[in-house]
């Protein structure tokens, strides 16, 4: 059997090897999942889909650690059940939010953890070799190739900002906790979707209800075409630059062309007008351009979206420091600002 | 100059003039064929898992999604099809010839870093490059951002390469190798080759590299180029009105590189540069230089000393200034895009006729690409050259040329023909006659 400490560890870090061992020893079976486990799994998914204030997250995590071994076991079992429900919903955008919840949870518990071995142990449970630092002034060291398995959304996690020497990263305690948190995000995200073979019918029913509930929120997502006619003055600086370069006949690289096309499609510019925008390109071929624009617009199967600001920076297409994280967000803000101003001037 | 414009408008003269149409192309094709017939290309490793692409004259990739089951089959393709360019995927696929890309089923991938003289804006480009405005057709020597005549920014560049360009690129290669070995700790599977044109390719083919995710490759690339550098995350932080850092002996990665560059700036004694770097008066900069030993001792211990009433701003400016010079100018697309295909080492480059020659790292410093990558002979060839700067190739100098006939050894003739700067003299049709 397992100790209460192991159970507590497994409930804090349900993606760990210890958690899998607990489930195995406890004889966890999908056909005999208690109602409270299913309920907890639904709660996890619903809570994960909405951003919360820091205090709300902390309350959510703290409450889950108070209780008997039965309650802790419910938490451990709820994790794989939630993953099955998410997979049955088959909406990949929810996977990232679910992974985000566990990245936050990991950091929350690790920052409260006083035992150094627990921190190093969690790394090893996620197949990442971490050791106490051999150099003074650091808490732990991680091999570069292991470090590169984490998620790098934040600047502090970027490799360029690490203390890197001969293939080893040296981290202080706080950064090591953040590394483990981002590694857990990656591990949870990459473990989804799971196989749906032999999934009980009641799981499918619950996932359908959940999907409908969450789809309601999705329907409320913004339709950029509702912003009215395309307005070049509202383009974010990156898109305005690519657009004017193309019109001027400059040779814009592939990521630039792709992102401009996806942006123009997203804001509702007609295909003919987009194709016209590319006419100035030195190697313009109308047939090829039209085919590609139509594919981007989803006339084939997949519909493509423009890259986020972070990606635009990676492509070296970002040209300004806008207060947004996505070029479409910039356009929406500009258009909505203009609409508000128009409405105000009309009422004056 | 008029003929130069003509060549710009009709870049492949053999496509347009009756009996003369194929001679230049045939000449080059035969030269390339003779090379491949007597050569056995032994690159790339894992040929059966790679995707290949090829190019015709004037188009580097005109077809791709090819696959060869062995190097023998690949060489047979080179001999029979005689491509002007041949590229391969750094990626290994289960089904390299399948389309679309996802159907190839990626197994793992090398990383390739590419340096190109064009990206480094070498001063010698002002001597050997030419430009022409696409709007008003004004033209001139050098490199311009905008037309000096009409101000238009749509410029066609005629870029050339020289030994100076390639020496500048080499310095970047040496710095990259330092990062790969001493920062990344990757010492296995490093291969180098001349690109065949204006730069060098560095292949990382070690097992620890091949399994890295696309995101991990971006992180390595950002480290190499210094992208997303954040001084605060690197330990340069402000407290009690002073800037502090990790002590030098405990600094690694970019924090160490920045401190070393700062030390170099102090040691140079260049007060003017320090004044520019820190946005301070030359008087303040002189004071820092005079105290440079004490300043550096303090910085080594982790404290940037007070030099003026705005010391923190001064030091931050200096750190940003020195770090901006440390990033390497590697081609991002080549390293990031796992689907990009790149020149096969030991094959010919169709824009120069030079070999993309493999280089042993220890001999890189003495490697002269414009001599050692020459594969064609010395038989004299008569050419009409429209425009070319003075070039040095195969240990000899030629030109400059402008609208003139000349006789050159075959290797130099191939170089100019591949560049599109010349035509075989027997094919040359005076402009008036051509337009008649």
TrEMBL record, chain A:
<protein>
    <recommendedName>
        <fullName>DNA primase large subunit PriL</fullName>
    </recommendedName>
</protein>
<feature type="binding site">
    <location>
        <position position="318"/>
    </location>
    <ligand>
        <name>[4Fe-4S] cluster</name>
    </ligand>
</feature>
<dbReference type="GO" id="GO:0046872">
    <property type="term" value="F:metal ion binding"/>
</dbReference>
<dbReference type="Pfam" id="PF04104">
    <property type="entry name" value="DNA_primase_lrg"/>
</dbReference>
<keyword id="KW-0235">DNA replication</keyword>
<keyword id="KW-0411">Iron-sulfur</keyword>
<keyword id="KW-0004">4Fe-4S</keyword>
<dbReference type="GO" id="GO:1990077">
    <property type="term" value="C:primosome complex"/>
</dbReference>
<comment type="subunit">
    <text>Heterodimer of a small subunit (PriS) and a large subunit (PriL).</text>
</comment>
<comment type="function">
    <text>Regulatory subunit of DNA primase, an RNA polymerase that catalyzes the synthesis of short RNA molecules used as primers for DNA polymerase during DNA replication. Stabilizes and modulates the activity of the small subunit, increasing the rate of DNA synthesis, and conferring RNA synthesis capability. The DNA polymerase activity may enable DNA primase to also catalyze primer extension after primer synthesis. May also play a role in DNA repair.</text>
</comment>
<feature type="binding site">
    <location>
        <position position="238"/>
    </location>
    <ligand>
        <name>[4Fe-4S] cluster</name>
    </ligand>
</feature>
<dbReference type="InterPro" id="IPR023642">
    <property type="entry name" value="DNA_primase_lsu_PriL"/>
</dbReference>
<dbReference type="GO" id="GO:0006270">
    <property type="term" value="P:DNA replication initiation"/>
</dbReference>
<feature type="domain" description="DNA primase large subunit C-terminal">
    <location>
        <begin position="229"/>
        <end position="326"/>
    </location>
</feature>
<keyword id="KW-0408">Iron</keyword>
<keyword id="KW-0639">Primosome</keyword>
<dbReference type="InterPro" id="IPR058560">
    <property type="entry name" value="DNA_primase_C"/>
</dbReference>
<keyword id="KW-0479">Metal-binding</keyword>
<feature type="binding site">
    <location>
        <position position="322"/>
    </location>
    <ligand>
        <name>[4Fe-4S] cluster</name>
    </ligand>
</feature>
<dbReference type="GO" id="GO:0051539">
    <property type="term" value="F:4 iron, 4 sulfur cluster binding"/>
</dbReference>
<feature type="binding site">
    <location>
        <position position="309"/>
    </location>
    <ligand>
        <name>[4Fe-4S] cluster</name>
    </ligand>
</feature>
<dbReference type="InterPro" id="IPR007238">
    <property type="entry name" value="DNA_primase_lsu_euk/arc"/>
</dbReference>
UniProtKB/TrEMBL annotation, chain B:
<dbReference type="InterPro" id="IPR023639">
    <property type="entry name" value="DNA_primase_ssu_PriS"/>
</dbReference>
<protein>
    <recommendedName>
        <fullName>DNA primase small subunit PriS</fullName>
        <ecNumber>2.7.7.-</ecNumber>
    </recommendedName>
</protein>
<comment type="function">
    <text>Catalytic subunit of DNA primase, an RNA polymerase that catalyzes the synthesis of short RNA molecules used as primers for DNA polymerase during DNA replication. The small subunit contains the primase catalytic core and has DNA synthesis activity on its own. Binding to the large subunit stabilizes and modulates the activity, increasing the rate of DNA synthesis while decreasing the length of the DNA fragments, and conferring RNA synthesis capability. The DNA polymerase activity may enable DNA primase to also catalyze primer extension after primer synthesis. May also play a role in DNA repair.</text>
</comment>
<dbReference type="GO" id="GO:0006269">
    <property type="term" value="P:DNA replication, synthesis of primer"/>
</dbReference>
<dbReference type="InterPro" id="IPR002755">
    <property type="entry name" value="DNA_primase_S"/>
</dbReference>
<keyword id="KW-0240">DNA-directed RNA polymerase</keyword>
<keyword id="KW-0639">Primosome</keyword>
<keyword id="KW-0464">Manganese</keyword>
<dbReference type="Pfam" id="PF01896">
    <property type="entry name" value="DNA_primase_S"/>
</dbReference>
<keyword id="KW-0235">DNA replication</keyword>
<comment type="similarity">
    <text>Belongs to the eukaryotic-type primase small subunit family.</text>
</comment>
<dbReference type="GO" id="GO:0046872">
    <property type="term" value="F:metal ion binding"/>
</dbReference>
<dbReference type="GO" id="GO:0000428">
    <property type="term" value="C:DNA-directed RNA polymerase complex"/>
</dbReference>
<dbReference type="GO" id="GO:0003899">
    <property type="term" value="F:DNA-directed RNA polymerase activity"/>
</dbReference>
<feature type="active site">
    <location>
        <position position="116"/>
    </location>
</feature>
<keyword id="KW-0804">Transcription</keyword>
<comment type="function">
    <text>RNA polymerase that catalyzes the synthesis of short RNA molecules used as primers for DNA polymerase during DNA replication.</text>
</comment>
<keyword id="KW-0460">Magnesium</keyword>
<comment type="subunit">
    <text>Heterodimer of a small subunit (PriS) and a large subunit (PriL).</text>
</comment>
<keyword id="KW-0479">Metal-binding</keyword>
<keyword id="KW-0548">Nucleotidyltransferase</keyword>
<keyword id="KW-0808">Transferase</keyword>
């Amino acid at each position: 059997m397992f100790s209460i400490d192991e159970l507590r560890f497994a409930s804090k870090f349900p993606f760990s090897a210890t958690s899998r061992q607990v489930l195995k020893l406890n004889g966890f079976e999908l056909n005999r999942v208690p109602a409270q486990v299913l309920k907890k799994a639904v709660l996890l998914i619903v809570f994960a889909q909405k951003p919360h204030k820091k205090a709300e997250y902390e309350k959510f995590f703290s409450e889950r650690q108070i209780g008997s071994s039965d309650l802790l076991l419910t938490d451990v079992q709820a994790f794989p059940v939630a993953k099955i429900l998410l997979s049955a919903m088959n909406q990949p955008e929810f996977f990232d939010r679910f992974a985000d919840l566990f990245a936050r949870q990991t950091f929350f518990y690790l920052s409260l953890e006083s035992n150094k071995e627990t921190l190093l142990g969690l790394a090893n449970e996620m197949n990442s070799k971490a050791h106490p630092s051999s150099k003074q002034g650091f808490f732990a060291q991680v091999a570069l190739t292991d470090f590169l398995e984490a998620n790098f959304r934040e600047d502090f996690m970027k490799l360029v900002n690490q203390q890197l020497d001969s293939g080893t990263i040296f981290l202080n305690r706080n950064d090591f906790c953040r590394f483990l948190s981002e590694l857990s995000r990656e591990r949870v995200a990459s473990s989804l979707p799971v196989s749906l073979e032999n999934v009980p019918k009641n799981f499918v029913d619950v996932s359908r209800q959940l999907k409908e509930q969450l789809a309601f929120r999705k329907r409320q997502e913004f339709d950029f075409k509702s912003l009215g006619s395309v307005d070049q003055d509202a383009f974010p600086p990156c898109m305005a630059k690519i657009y004017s370069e193309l019109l001027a006949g400059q040779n814009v690289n592939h990521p630039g062309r792709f992102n401009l096309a996806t942006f123009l499609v997203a804001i509702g510019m007609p295909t003919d007008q987009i194709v016209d925008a590319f006419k100035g390109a030195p190697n313009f071929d109308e047939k090829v351009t039209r085919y590609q624009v139509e594919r981007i617009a989803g006339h084939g199967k997949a519909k493509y979206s423009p890259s986020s600001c972070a990606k635009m920076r990676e492509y070296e297409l970002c040209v300004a420091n806008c207060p947004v994280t996505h070029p479409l967000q910039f356009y929406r803000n500009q258009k909505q600002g203009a609409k508000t101003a128009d409405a105000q001037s009309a009422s004056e | 100059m008029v003929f130069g414009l003509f060549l710009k408008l009709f870049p492949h003269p053999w496509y347009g003039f009756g009996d003369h149409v194929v001679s230049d192309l045939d000449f080059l094709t035969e030269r390339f064929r003779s090379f491949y017939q007597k050569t056995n290309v032994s690159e790339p490793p894992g040929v059966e898992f790679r995707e290949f692409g090829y190019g015709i004259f004037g188009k580097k990739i005109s077809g791709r999604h090819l696959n060869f089951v062995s190097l023998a089959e690949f060489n047979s393709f080179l001999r029979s099809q005689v491509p002007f360019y041949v590229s391969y995927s750094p990626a290994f696929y289960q089904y390299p010839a399948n389309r679309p890309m996802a159907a190839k089923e990626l197994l793992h991938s090398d990383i390739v870093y590419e340096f190109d003289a064009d990206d480094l804006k070498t001063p010698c480009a002002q001597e050997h490059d030419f430009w022409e405005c696409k709007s008003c057709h004004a033209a001139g020597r050098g490199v311009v951002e905008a037309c000096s005549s009409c101000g238009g920014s749509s410029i066609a560049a005629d870029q050339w390469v020289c030994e100076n360009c390639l020496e500048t690129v080499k310095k970047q290669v040496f710095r990259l190798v330092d990062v790969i070995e001493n920062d990344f700790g990757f010492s296995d599977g490093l291969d180098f080759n001349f690109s065949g044109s204006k730069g060098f390719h560095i292949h990382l083919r070690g097992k620890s590299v091949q399994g890295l995710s696309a995101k991990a490759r971006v992180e390595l690339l950002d480290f190499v180029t210094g992208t997303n550098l954040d001084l605060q995350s690197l330990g340069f932080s402000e407290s009690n009105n002073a800037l502090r850092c990790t002590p030098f002996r405990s600094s690694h990665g970019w924090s160490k590189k920045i401190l070393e560059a700062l030390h170099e700036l102090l040691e140079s004694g260049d007060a003017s540069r320090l004044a520019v770097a820190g946005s301070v008066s030359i008087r303040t900069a002189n004071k820092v230089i005079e105290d440079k030993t004490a300043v550096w001792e303090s910085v080594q211990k982790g404290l940037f000393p007070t030099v003026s009433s705005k010391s923190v701003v001064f030091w931050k400016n200096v750190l940003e200034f020195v770090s901006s010079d440390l990033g390497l100018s590697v081609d991002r697309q080549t390293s990031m895009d796992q689907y990009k295909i790149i020149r096969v080492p030991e094959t010919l480059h169709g824009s120069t006729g030079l070999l993309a020659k493999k280089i042993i790292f220890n001999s890189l410093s003495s490697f002269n690409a414009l001599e050692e990558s020459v594969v064609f002979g010395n038989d004299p060839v008569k050419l009409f050259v429209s425009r070319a700067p003075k070039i040095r190739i195969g240990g000899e100098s030629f030109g400059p040329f402008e609208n003139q006939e000349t006789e050159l050894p075959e290797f130099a003739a191939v170089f100019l023909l591949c560049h599109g700067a010349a035509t075989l003299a027997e094919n040359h049709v005076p402009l008036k006659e051509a337009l008649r």
